[in-house]
Amino acid sequence: MEALLIILSILLIAGGVIFSILPPIPGPLLTYGALICTHFVSNDTEFSTSSFVIWGIIGIIILIADFALPIAATKRFGGTKAGVIGGMIGMVAGVLLPIPFGIVLGPLLGAIIGDLYGGNRIRSAFKSGFGSFLGFLVATSLKLFYSAILGGIIAWKVGGFTLNAIIDLF
Fold this sequence. Notes:
There is one protein chain. This protein is mainly α. It is built from six helices and no strands. The protein is elongated, with a radius of gyration of 20 Å.
C-alpha cells in the first residue's frame, strides 16, 4: 500500500507541475493531492495539520490569482471588457487548437482581437494584449512555483522515509 501511495504521489506531483502550465486541471490542486497521499504513507511522512491548512490556503490564493491576474492586468493596461473576454477565450483556444505556442499566443491575440472589437485603437489593443499576456505569465509562474516547492518538500519527506526503510532492512 505504501508503494502505491508513493507512486500516486509522484504522479500527482508530475501532473501538478504539468498542469501548472496547461489549464484544463489546476496544477496546484493535484500537488496538494500528493500532499494528502504522502501523509498516509507512514508515520515518517505525516504532515501537521498546520501544514495542510497553510498549503491549502496558499493553493486557494494561487488558484484565485490564476483567474484574477490576467483580468486585472488586461484592465490595468487599458483593456476593455471585450478585451478581457477575448483574452480568456484566447487562452482556451490556445490550449485546444494545434497552434505552435498557442498557450502563450492565445491570451495575447485574444485580448488584442477583443479590444479591437470593443472599440480600442490598435496601439491600445496591443497594450492590453500585453497586459493579458503578462498576467497569464505571472499566474502561471505562481502555480509552477507552488507545485515545484510543495513537490520538493514531498519528495524530501518520501526520500527520507524510503532511506529509513532501506536502513531498517539491514
